[in-house]
Amino acid sequence: MAVPPPVAQTKLHVGRPNAFKSRLGLGTHKGSTDSDRKIAERNSMWASLPPPAQALKAIVVLPARNEAAHLPASLAALAAQAGMDGSPLDRAGFEVILLANNCGDASAAIARRFAAAHRGLRLHVVETTLPPAQANIGYVRRLLMDEAATRLESIGCPEAAIVSTDADTRVAPDWLAANLRELAAGSDAVGGRILTDDSVRPSSAALRIRRIDAAHALLRSRLASLLDPRPFDPWPCHHQHFGASLAVTARAYRLAGGVPDVPYLEDDALVRALERVDLRVRRSPHARVTTSSRLDGRAAVGLSWQLRQWAHLTTNHHDPLVENPHRYAMALTVRALLRQLWQRHGAALASSLPAGIDARLNLCAGTIGRLARAAPAFGALWQELEIQTSSAGASKSQLGPPRGLPLVPISQALGVLRDLIRREQAASVPALCAVPAISEVFDISAAFAQFAASTAAAASIGPGLGPDAGFQGASNTSIR
Hints:
By secondary structure, this protein is α/β, with parallel strands linked by helices.
């Protein structure tokens, strides 16, 4: 990954120069290249941090920008971490690095006072002012996670965890222990369950859409667990893998190339990078956090942005339009089949493709074979297929024929998803259902036909539910 540009106007408030600085190779020497100097300048942000303890099992990273109102509760939750059984958690086993960037309030001072009052918590506070082009959550989270990976590698602990949360978020008492347990069980990364604090309430109509959206996303997760089950992410699981609760081993972080260079949605981009190289991402219901539901968020695109979009929709009496559940079911079925073929044949899977799959993907068998031969892992192949087959603006899982399966109102999609789930669950006990499950037959044209009447009637359900409803990708970035 390219080295980010050097930061400016850095102020360090915790720690002191020590041997760790030399281990990082800080400072420039005669004959150093420009690249060496840039690395040294970036590392100088962290030069005053104390060396990492040899007993570290996790480093929690916490970006903060103008979070004076939320930081006390966020830090108190981290200081109160306990084991899964409620027993005290060994404080030597984790540290917290808080980066306060471009703050116009007392965020850094509040964090430093908290650190002084809670000596048992290894809390390192760094304050900096970044240039405008770098003062975004994507860049800041990348700085933090890169530094955490470097610290863990320096003590020979690549399997230790980098665990991200946010300054407006309160982690559950067993949050860290739950993340570590999932990683110890074989996961490479863990997306935690993110709930919202409704003490600052958006409109009741926006709350309704948010709850419907959460139900929709969870139903999709359940359907995926039935049609394309993955042993490392069994049901119960969920749909979230965002910065408020995202853990990854240092080894997996490096294998994925780190946080991609994007200004926002960096968490989703990191998980895509992990999945591209077939690393195991667990979406655990046991690692839980509660985040604020404010409308004036710090990221350009995030939960606050989502809430504003929902408020706009409800003002105009619109429901979000989402991917047709039958199209999603087809994509899951195709993915499961291709995954099985990849496991058996690797990059030569094209020679074993069943008849009709090229039509489902809108790609000829030759193109599928070429993409497979170029893919280093199944995740990379699947993502390339998504790129090749998705029309502009379509959601990432929308594979298959571009016509005949339009987007549908989210409230309508809920019922269809429940029906598909019931059908799959019933099919696991043959005596309960004589109709083949979707996963048992590749050609699901009959299911498409059954749904045609309801999709054709979408515009008649209520105001603004037709193709011009706007904000059609709501559920794909929701509940952050």
